Amino acid sequence: MKSVVADEQKLLERFMWLSIGATVLTIVLKATAAWVTGSVGFLSDAIESGINLIAAAVGLWALKLSAKPADANHNFGHARAEYFSAQVEGSLILLASVAIIFTAIDRLINPAPVEQVGIGLAFSIVATALNGAVGIVLIRAGRKYRSTTLDADGHHLLTDVWTTVGVIVGMALVWLTGWQPLDPIVALVVGLNILFTGYNLLKGAMLGLLSEALPQEETAVVHAFLDDYAAANGVTFTSVRTAAAGRQRTVSLVMQVPGDWTVDRAHDHADAVEEGMAHALGSAETIVHVEPLGHPTRTGPLEM
Fold first, then answer.
1. Contacts of 222 (CB under 8 A, 6+ apart)
2. How far does the signal peptide extend, from start to end residue (predicted)?
């Protein structure tokens, strides 16, 4: 089991290195487009990719930290580190959006000509194709391995793709019409779009840190397993609670068993529930509290 987890961790880290490599190349392409044309639209796009690079590096750090086992100071492991990565990424996106918006407003007030737009468009198109391919790969891997970091980074790259598409369309119109104010207007739209993206990332990270319950489809798996087990073994499950923390899944429940069962028998069933739940969810930590059938289940805080 440990070998499988270690192999999965190495694979996730390779995905983050793929993101970092692709982002470096994208920055070079977009910065070249901005330098050749003098376009604030292309510059705003390059700035966003620079934020992508920092975010990917933070994401790699978070993945390494989240894989560390539980210790004396972190009894439940380090899985929530991935949410800190998403928070950093969201915060950086917000800062980038503010910088882009101010730059665009300045260019509207102080216009400057845009040159060699055709060359800039060519560089941006290549960068868009690269970002799109890597973003799709990261999102699929994030969903498959339940990695908040990969999923956030993949969505960030796809947001970058749509941003660049908007820049390309705007700059193509500048090229065709010669209307220079379109350049800062495009940059302003890009900045507002990035602002919205950063807000959504921060919102998702905060929900994760607040121990949000498992997604609906996984909750359905939990209850389906418990219903089948209860019907086959004459037990009852109550007070079922779930929580997600990055790739870590936690299930807490009360298992009510016949009062004449021995401690050993109840313990064996508790072990079976833990192992079955881990198999059903693809890995999970299940906390089972055993009580006799008919015992009133406590739902509120303990009274001292």
1. 214, 240, 242, 251, 277, 280, 281
2. none
